[in-house]
Each structure stands twice: as C-alpha cells, then as structure tokens.
Amino acid sequence: FDPRHYLGTHCYGFLKTGPHRLRFLLESVKDLRETLKKKGSTLVVRKGKPEDVVRDLITQLGSVSAVVFHEEVREIL
Fold first, then answer.
1. How far apart are CA 43 and CA 49, in angstroms?
2. CATH number of the domain where residue 32 is located
3. Fewer beta carbons below 10 Å: N end or C end of the chain?
C-alpha cells in the first residue's frame, strides 16, 4: 500500500480514499490472501513507496529473476 494513494485529498478537497473504499480494499486483499493460501501460495503485503518496498523485497529474497508491475493511468485534468 503506497501511502501517497491514501493520505490527504485529491481534487476539490475530496479524500483520496474514503472509509468505505479503504474497507473494500482491505477486505479484498484479505480475501485474495485467503484464496492464495488455499492454493498453497501466499501474498506479500507491504506499506510504503513501491520503489523502496520492491527494492527491499528483492534484497531480502536474493534470487529474483523478474519483477512485473503495472503503471497506473493518470487522468489529465
């Protein structure tokens, strides 16, 4: 979870993430983790800037051959 996506306000003073959306996101991540667990896998969840968290995870794991990510499309206002 990148704090920059959840803290503060966005356009017109609206919260970036309100309480209902945050609850939905947390419940979705919990459900995904439980589903993966049933299939013998796991889900790594971290809080921080992705550029820092991913680097730290790669360092911890040691033998990473690939990193896959997506870039969020930004709306131009």
1. 18
2. 3.40.50.620
3. C
